Amino acid sequence: MRIFSDFCSQNQIFTFKSPKFTELKLKPMNTNLFLQSLTKFLLGVIILGLLIFLPAGSFHYWQGWLLMGILFVPMFIAGLVMMVKNPELLRKRLNAKEQEKEQKTVVALSGVLFIATFVVAGLNWRFQWCVLPNWAVWVSAALFLVCYLLYAEVLRENTYLSRTIEVQEHQKVVDTGLYGVVRHPMYMATTILFLMMPLVLASPISFAIMLLYIPLIAKRIRNEEAVLEQGLEGYSEYKQRVKYRILPFIW
Question: pTM to 2 decimals?
Fold first, then answer.
């Protein structure tokens, strides 16, 4: 419907009226943002597919298809929702250019870690080194989806979320919902998501590799909090109120 309205309206606003429903206005879609997000989405699908199925040597690696399904279908839906409800948040999420030197290192190491995780998972399935049973794969997939829901809730609660560490103009401290439990609920959700990926791929060897992500995200969080304390009013007080970073009663 959004695409249809963009083609037909030519930057006008369509108004639909019904005696039974309230007036609904559809604003034209930001074409550049739509194309940018679609391009990155398709590139992600292609790159992940190559990293999984080339080492596996077969498209019969059903766990690989399962991961791609539970990863990219919700991602596509979330992208459409943000495009309609909050395009500015989507624009922030597409911005992956870190300014902090320390964070550039973390991002680069994380990229190497993810590549190793997916390649080893494909090789593990190909040579049957150590493959998890099907029930473990499905349990991991269920946990993955639960964490995806948590991630979506974080996006709903905090419209200042960006993929880069920065203090935005007029930014305020968010301390409600999940942010009242831990200071970094997004990292909580994504860390569990990432740890579930190799288990969905039935590769405990890849899971051991992905555990190296924990010290990387810990380093990122410490640097992010230093930036926020320096530039975001009220963040130091927020740290006093909410004691834990990503795991209640642990850290």
Answer: 0.80
- Cα(210)–Cα(197) distance, integer angstroms: 9
User: Does some domain include residue 26?
Assistant: no
Three-state DSSP class for residue 15: strand
Q: What are the tens digits of pLDDT across the range 166-177?
A: 455 556 777 778
- Helix (H), strand (E) at residue 69: helix 62-85
Max intra-chain CA distance, the chain: 64
For residue 215, what are the CA distances in angstroms to 19, 115, 212, 220, 237?
A: 58, 17, 6, 9, 26
Q: What is the per-residue pLDDT across 152-163, written as a single tens digit (0 to 9) for each?
A: 888 777 766 654
Local structure of 25: helix, strand or coil: strand
In this predicted structure, the answer to whether residue 4 has a pLDDT above a threshold of 50 is no
* Domain presence at residue 22: no
**What CATH number is given to the structural domain containing 135?**
1.20.120.1630
